[in-house]
Each structure stands twice: as structure tokens, then as C-alpha cells.
Amino acid sequence: MIELIVSDMDGTLLNNKLAVSDTNRQAIEFAQSKGIKFMVATGRGYTEAVPALHEAGIYCPMITVNGGQLYDEEGTLVENIGIDKKRIKNILNFVKSKGLYAEVVTTEGVYSDDKVGRIETMTTLLQKTNPDTTFKMALILALGRLELLNIHYVDDFDEILNKESSEMLKVLVFSNIGQPELQVIRDEFESDSELVITSSFFNNIEINHVQAQKGIALERVAKHMKIPLKNIMAIGDNFNDASMLEKAGVSFAMGNAELGVKKIAKYETGTNNDHGVADAIFRCINENL
């Protein structure tokens, strides 16, 4: 019997407008009424993740930064796994030398050194995932979401690297062209045994500490909650979800998931625009998966 449902956010719980549908919210509430716990596991930092959840009235424990942090339902930080600043600086210098845009997730929030780059990246993402949306409309949507996502802008990343109180959790690297342009970053850092490189969208890669993976974090959550992994259901769409889909007893890939992710999951549900999370939840409960 399923005791815990864990859902990814982008491309999964969120539709292409980056919001939680009423149908998904109602399904979560239905599961909770049956005594099933719900939490999210996202690549986003905490301050990026909570606006969309709270807007839908969802308050729950969270695995954030791909497993770099764990928060309880009240928003209290329970666990933290970061990357040393020397490695972060090396990554950022290499990314800059390739002319790519990057963001850094820290214990104090998400940082960017290029506001225009941030807007362009978000606009391109929204336009490509919403083909009927014009560039102008995508730009308006991007600007609206940027107000919610609590991004901090700095002139130079050294400002945060030199800040003793700030711990580094993740580097995101973006390309509006897509994965082919990001391959050079993978090639440079995949051999580092202290790092793991995944992706949550066609236009990014995410660099975490090797222990900061959703599947590893899920194991720790299961142990803390005293819930067997076989009694956990996980839902995701991209390769940063793969490790938790492998660990969970019941796993669903979204209809819009990458093919490799669909091969890992036991079941497939609808797309993120067609309330696939809700369909998966109802199927799991009704069929007693």
C-alpha cells in the first residue's frame, strides 16, 4: 500500500505555464484524505519552488536542489549537501569561457550575474513549451514568473563565493540551442567523482554534489519517515528524476517524459498539461498499485 507520493515539479506537477492545475491539487488533497503523505522533489531551490506550491495551497515536505536540501512541512531546513567553493569557481570560469549563461543555487537563494540572460532563458523555455504562445506573450509570462522566483542578481559571482555564510549547492548551465551546446560542460566535469550532472529541461544541465540526488535523498526520507521504499510512489519527467524513479516501489513517467525516463519507470501517465500527476495518483489508489 502506498504511504507516500513524491512528485517532481517542472514538467510534472507544473504545467507549461509553470502552475499547478486545480485537477492536480484536488488529486493531492484526495490522496491526503486517504492518509497518504505528499511531498515534492525538485531541482529548484526552496525560494524558487514554494511560490507555485503555495499559490495552489500546497504545503508539504520538500526535497530541493535535486537532493541538496531537505525541508519539512513548516519550511525548516533539515539537511544540506553542497559543493566546495573551489569547484564552483572552476565550473563558473569554464562556463563563462564558453559563453554560456549560468546560475548558482546557494543556501541563501538563487543567484544570477546576468538579468537579461535570465529573462531570455525563461522566455525561450516558455515559448518552446507553449508553441502557440508568441514571443511577446512568452516574455510577459517570463517577467511575471521572474517576480515570483526570488532570483538575486550580482555583478560578479565572486560576491557570493567570497561570502563565508553562503554554501554552494548547485550550478545550472543554460543554452537556448539545447543539449548539443551543453555537451562541452558535461565532457569537462563528468569525470569528477564528487559531482553528478543531470538535466531537468531541454535547455539546461544541473551540476550537484554526487550525494545530492533525488533517489539518495528519497532513501533518507524513507528512513526518517519509517516508510519502506516499496510503499513510495514517485512521478517525474526528466533525467534528474531517474534515481528516485529507480528507488520507489511504484514509479510513473509523465507522457511528456524523455524516452530514457519512460524506460526506467514502471508506468506512464498523461502529460503535465493534461494533469498527468492527478491521473497517476487516482490510478495508484484505485488500482491499489
From TrEMBL:
Organism for this UniProt entry: Jeotgalibaca ciconiae
Protein name stated in the entry: HAD family phosphatase
GO molecular function, one term: magnesium ion binding
InterPro entries on file: Cof (IPR000150), HAD-like_sf (IPR036412), HAD-SF_hydro_IIB (IPR006379), HAD_sf (IPR023214)
GO cellular component, one term: cytosol
